[in-house]
Amino acid sequence: MKGKIKEFVLSLGIDDVGIASVKDYKSPRTPDLQSIFPGAKSLVVLAYKTLSNCESENMQIAMGGRLDEMEFKRSSNYRVARFLENELKAKAMTVCSIKAAIEVPSIYHETLMRKKTSRNSFY
Q1: Which terminus, N or C, of the chain has the lesser number of Cβ atoms within 10 Å?
Q2: Pairing of strands 91-96, 16-21
Q3: On the CB side of 17, how many CA atoms lie within 13 Å of its CA?
Q4: pLDDT > 90: percent of the chain
Q5: Residue 10: pLDDT over 60
Q6: pLDDT tens-digit map of 56-101
Q7: Domains and CATH numbers, the chain
Q8: Are 90 and 101 in contact (CB under 8 A)?
Q9: CB under 8 Å to 9, separation ≥6 — which residues?
């Protein structure tokens, strides 16, 4: 299943993807993931390389690049969540850190995923 997710994500033009267990995710900068999405078991992290024009000294060029980048990220994040729900029958939600988009040149979008298995548990 991880291979199917990674293949789809990379086909969208996203630079990298990682999948981890929610129980292994610890961050002092974010709330407990269970408080955001109870029952979530997996975290899909999408990584995007910053476009060169975002580093331009010309603020108009840099802002245009950032806006294009944000639009692509939001669209891609939504498409990944739809894929998880439609193809894998998982419940998914998108989470975007605006603070991260401002503070670091490369931003990660996260998709929380939970899926009920035949054994009546989530992964």
Answers
A1: N
A2: unpaired
A3: 22
A4: 34
A5: yes
A6: 999 999 999 999 988 999 999 999 999 999 999 988 888 765 444 3
A7: 2-114 (3.30.980)
A8: no
A9: 17, 44, 46, 76, 80
